[in-house]
């Protein structure tokens, strides 16, 4: 089998996740207290691919470098090739930008904010066993007008790709995962920018189809999570906590009740509180006189006092004091939410880094 490479896209502007993405890239938003990008890299390494290129943007590239400098796999440090894409001019443009790294190798292209169930190992094997030029990943969706969609023939060959059609010919949406041979580079050289002034990967794949290259589809049976919006991140957090978290109480627990699959980091402290899993409490976090409900991730060095939180993601160093109930919220780094007076049944927040909220 040829030695494959991987190209992970971790650039873009993340407009659907503002205000979060004013200050850092969406691929670094944590679910279950790990950056989404880590799960993508895990899947690639588990498929036996070790030569990994990371597309970064000028605005957020340094933070991606910093976070990935701390990444380990099976207790081993992993090194990456960082590739700067000056402007987000399309997925095919990202491949073009990375050509010096990719050379003539087959490669997996993985959007860094996508998660799929069961990884990619079996699909990489299929690509080589069937001697394909492209394998595109698809998932049945309820509203295909929001996605690029594929039309297949009876044998699973790709006939045509259509970007966000008003009248969809199928409900098979393009997932942000692809496997290509080096023939994708020839296709990209031919295509022109779209109406968005971007080089579209769908156009490049269509060009491969027209040139009779072997382009097939893999329809995913398990879950697919595109974490481009707040509710999608909360759903990813729920799924990962549900499927991958085991009970592990390492920190100090004083006069508290820990129920179910809960991870409490070694330097965390829980006092006079109840934690009901699945949930994770990060390093250096302090939870006092509070209730942390299911599907909640409390980041490193957070301070939670006299509050109730469920189904939420709280990023590092945030402080929440005397808030009756927070539900379905995504709260940025170093945010402060302080309840001054009165009683409200529940709050929902979507606030970015360094925000301060006072509720009266």
Automatic annotation (TrEMBL):
InterPro entries: G1P_thy_trans_l, NTP_transferase_dom, Nucleotide-diphossugar_trans. Its EC number is 2.7.7.24. It is an enzyme of class 2 (transferase). Residues 5-241 form the Nucleotidyl transferase domain. Keywords: Nucleotidyltransferase, Transferase. GO terms for molecular function: glucose-1-phosphate thymidylyltransferase activity. SUPFAM superfamilies: Nucleotide-diphospho-sugar transferases (SSF53448). This is Glucose-1-phosphate thymidyltransferase. It comes from Thermodesulfobium narugense DSM 14796. The lineage of its organism: Bacteria, Pseudomonadati, Thermodesulfobiota, Thermodesulfobiia, Thermodesulfobiales.
């Amino acid at each position: 089998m040829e030695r494959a490479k991987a190209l992970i896209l971790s650039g873009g502007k993340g407009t659907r996740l503002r205000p979060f993405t004013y200050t850092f890239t969406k691929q670094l938003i944590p679910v279950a207290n790990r950056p989404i990008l880590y799960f993508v890299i895990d899947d690639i390494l588990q498929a036996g691919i070790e030569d990994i290129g990371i597309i970064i943007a000028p605005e957020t590239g340094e933070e991606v470098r910093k976070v990935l400098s701390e990444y380990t796999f099976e207790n081993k440090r992993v090194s990456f090739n960082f590739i700067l894409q000056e402007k987000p001019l399309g997925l095919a443009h990202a491949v073009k930008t990375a050509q010096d790294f990719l050379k003539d190798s087959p490669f997996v292209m993985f959007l860094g904010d996508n998660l799929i169930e069961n990884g990619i190992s079996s699909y990489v094997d299929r690509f080589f066993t069937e001697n394909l030029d492209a394998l595109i990943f698809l998932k049945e969706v309820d509203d295909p007008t929001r996605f690029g969609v594929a039309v297949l023939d009876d044998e699973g060959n790709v006939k045509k790709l259509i970007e966000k059609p008003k009248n969809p010919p199928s409900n098979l949406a393009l997932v942000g995962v692809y496997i290509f041979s080096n023939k994708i580079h020839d296709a990209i050289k031919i295509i022109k920018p779209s109406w968005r002034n971007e080089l579209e990967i769908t156009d490049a794949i269509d060009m491969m189809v027209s040139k009779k290259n072997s382009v097939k589809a893999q329809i995913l049976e398990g879950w697919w999570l595109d974490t481009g919006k707040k509710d999608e991140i909360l759903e990813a957090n729920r799924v990962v906590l549900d499927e991958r978290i085991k009970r592990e109480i390492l920190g100090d627990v004083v006069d508290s009740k820990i129920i179910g699959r809960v991870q409490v980091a070694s330097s965390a402290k829980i006092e006079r509180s109840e934690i009901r899993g699945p949930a994770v409490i990060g390093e250096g976090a302090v939870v006092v006189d509070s209730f942390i409900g299911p599907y909640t991730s409390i980041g490193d060095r957070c301070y939670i006092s006299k509050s109730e939180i469920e189904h939420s993601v709280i990023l590092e160093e945030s402080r929440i004091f005397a808030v009756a109930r927070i539900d379905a919220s995504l709260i940025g780094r170093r945010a402060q939410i302080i309840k001054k007076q009165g009683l409200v049944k529940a709050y929902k927040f979507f606030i970015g880094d360094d925000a301060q909220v006072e509720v009266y």
